[in-house]
Amino acid sequence: MLRRISARYSRGFLAAVIAVAALVTAANVGPARAAEAAPAAHTTTHTTGQR
After folding, report:
1. How far apart are CA 28 and CA 22, in angstroms?
2. What is the pLDDT of residue 15?
């Protein structure tokens, strides 16, 4: 029974180590590149409301 428990814990620990390694690798791949500069999709006009 002790073997089953230790095997279960070791598989869980190994899965956690792999998950952390995948997250660290994904975080260090590099920043996403920004899209090309484009004009604003819409413009707003601000009025003072005074006549």
Report:
1. 10
2. 96
